[in-house]
Design brief:
By secondary structure, this protein is an alpha/beta fold. It has a single domain (about 5-180), classed as 2-enoyl-CoA Hydratase, Chain A, domain 1 (Alpha-Beta Complex), CATH 3.90.226.10. Helix content is about 45%, strand content about 15%. It is built from 11 helices and 9 strands. The protein has helices at about 30-45, 65-70, 80-90, 105-110, 140-150, 150-155, 165-170, 180-195, 200-210, 215-230, 235-245, and strands spanning about 5-10, 15-20, 50-55, 95-100, 100-105, 115-120, 125, 165, 175. Strands 1-2-3-4-6-9 form a 6-stranded mixed beta sheet, sandwiched between helices. Strands 5-7-8 form a 3-stranded mixed beta sheet. The longest helix is centred in the C-terminal third of the chain and has 18 residues, at about 215-230. The chain starts with a strand and ends with a helix. The chain binds coenzyme A (COA). Coenzyme A (COA) binds near residues 23, 24, 104 and 105. Coenzyme A binds next to helix 2 and strand 5.
Length: about 250
């Protein structure tokens, strides 16, 4: 269990808080493992009806820990990151995210598996996979063009352009933009509202809204295979080393 993930259950909502602010909540294998277990256990437990993801310290997440990409690259479906993505993509629970500041890489792609995402005006969604010598993950190569159209998804996934909150809302990624000081309370209220709904009807409604889960899982598996290979490519290793070795201005 990672100390960098805070877990708390309240009023039917499991709060999963990324809590590694000195590293912009960058996600390590241990953090993914804790989140995967927290999601699986919540889905099997019965008390929890909704999950709320947020980040501590004014950021959502800087994405996968780049040092981990170099030292401990995920390989195979049992790798914590892939276990987390599988638990996320197949969760029958209502999933809510509160996004403040940077949401890089998986910080953005995981939002396509959330049912509601509320963001502060300073939210910035960025998927620089190609610039890192990588490919999309979390079925984002399917879900992003489907949500926002190919033209905007190509700007994000191919050019690596970030979307600020307003544009992300227009692109259909966000359920709402709320002032930063109201973000936690708003997202919590929405998650609690979902948790208080008739449980079976909510669960069935979510399943009906995702009519072809096998398609998503198949794309995710294909991406994971190419992603794992890309992690070992010279262009990816050079990009990771450049980030790790960069000097601060
Ligand atoms: N992996 C490892 N460390 C990371 C990280 C990541 N993904 N994101 C941030 N950090 C660390 C930095 O190395 C730095 O650590 P240090 O203080 O020990 O040097 C610390 O977090 C603060 O980062 P910094 O870049 O100074 O903060 P910032 O507010 O100026 O910028 C980001 C924040 C997220 C825009 C920037 O850190 C960034 O681009 N991170 C990498 C994003 C990325 O490519 N993720 C992988 C996606 S697949």
């Amino acid at each position: 269990m990672s100390d960098h993930i805070l877990l708390r259950d309240e009023e039917g909502v499991r709060h999963i808080t990324l809590n590694r602010p000195d590293k912009r909540n960058a996600l390590t294998a241990a953090m993914y493992a804790t989140m995967a277990d927290a999601l699986t256990e919540a889905a099997n437990g019965g008390q929890v009806r909704a999950v709320l993801f947020s980040g501590a310290g004014g950021f959502f997440t800087g994405g996968n820990d780049i040092g981990d990409f170099l030292a401990n690259p995920p390989q195979g479906p049992d790798a914590p990151v892939f276990r987390f993505l599988m638990a996320l993509a197949t969760s029958p629970l209502a999933l809510v995210a509160a996004v403040e500041g940077q949401a890089v890489g998986i910080g953005t792609t995981m939002l396509f598996h959330c049912d509601l995402t509320y963001a502060a005006p300073n939210a910035r969604l960025h998927v620089p996979f190609v610039d890192l010598g990588l490919v999309p993950e979390a079925a984002s190569s399917l879900l992003m063009p489907r949500t926002m159209g190919h033209a905007t998804a190509a700007r994000m996934l191919m050019l690596g352009e970030p979307l600020e909150a307003e544009e992300a809302k227009q692109a259909g990624i966000l359920s709402g933009i709320v002032p930063v000081e109201a973000l936690a309370a708003t997202a919590t209220a929405k998650a609690r509202a979902l948790a208080a709904k008739p449980a079976e009807a909510l669960r069935q409604t979510k399943a009906l809204m995702k009519p072809n889960p096998q398609e998503v899982l198949a794309v995710m598996a294909k991406e994971a295979e190419i992603f794992s290979r890309s992690l070992r490519s010279p262009e990816a290793i050079a990009a990771f080393q450049a980030f790790m070795g960069r000097s601060k201005k």
